[in-house]
Amino acid sequence: MKLKTFMATALAGILGSSTFASAKTEYILKPDRWNGGTVGLGNLKGGGGGKFTLNVNADQNIFFNILSSSTSWASGIIFDRSSYSSLNLSSTTMEFGTIFSSSHVATGIKNQFNNLDLYLRDKSAVDIAFLANIVGNLQASGFWLDNSAFALKTGTISFEESITATNGIASGFYVVGQSRSGSVEISSAYAEAAQVKINKITGREAYGLLYEINHNGNNLTIDSGLYLNHNERGGIFINSIQSANGNAALLMSYGNTSITLNNLAVMKVGSINSASQAYGIAINDGNASIFLNKGSLLSIDSLTAQRGAYGFYVAGNNYSGAYFTLKTSDGAMASINNISSKTNDAYGILTDKSLTLEAYQDTSAIKFGTILSLQGNAYGIKSHSYSRLNALNGGKIIFETIKGQNAYGIQSNYDVILKPQGN
User: Fold this and answer.
1) 269-296 tens-digit pLDDT
2) What is the mean pLDDT of residues 359-385?
3) For residues 275 and 306, is the Cβ–Cβ distance under 8 A?
4) Domain that includes residue 195, residue range
5) Number of domain units in the chain
6) Would you say residue 9 lies in a domain?
């Protein structure tokens, strides 16, 4: 999809609208180089004092060419303090060009102090498209959720170029709160699946999803509803995550974390690369529950780092009863094809919690391809507590290759219980 070019004079607000033969209203918005204050579409705040209110019943296309701030935030859409709780934009498509903050934060969709269920068009290829780069100095994100829960119920949101933080943290989803739980849901009970597609995330640190300071825990739910969207399953799709000198992860969280994928749901990244440490899933200072059900897929093709690579990392704040559980059932799979570290150790799983891995029924699997450390040790599993591996009724737990200066299938400080059953 190509970024549209508009010939219009920049104003701090809507430049104009016209109705075409298709009866679809098209808005051209270009607050070009809008300096001072926060800029954005939706509950729009800025130096110009502009505000754009969406007509949710209109059949409309909205195009935003360049959105830039030199002193504060730049945001594509802002939902602030319960402005919406359930929003149906099934007759609206939006396309954004460059979103840029030279000194602060740039984000595609900002939702603060607001629990939002978003319904988009379920018959179009893309409903909200960020066609060019989102670039922030301190941080850049596709979604910024502050004391908020967000659910995409239908449709597709795509980030087609790069989410880039020049001097800080870049993320697909940044979830932060003081009192509420941090919650992201990509879930459809309708005729087509809901999808979030991200091309590239780059920064000093880079994450697909980053959860911080959520006192009541962190939640991610993806449910494809057994539906397809243009022959694709519902879920979160990321091509690459790359950090320049900090950590990189598909998901990084602090505190108790629950991840659930149902009904053909997908959470997939092509490559994660870090000049420091790289993680698939990293849970700090909390328990972790990951449940993959009914043909769902958690997939990482390549995970590479200079100073330590971890498929699953769950550690910190350990106590009696602390746990890490990863279960696949009914044809679901968790798969990491390649885990590689240049200098430090490489792990399929590292945890100080009581560990339970379970693959239940035929075609269900927990699978690791190559685990490689060029100058350090390599581990399939390293656990500082009890480990239980249950491969039941034809389910499989697979470690294909483990290679390092020293290589271990399972290293545990306590009992290891293996429970194969069936085939």
Assistant:
1) 999 999 999 999 999 999 999 999 999 9
2) 96
3) yes
4) 15-420
5) 1
6) no
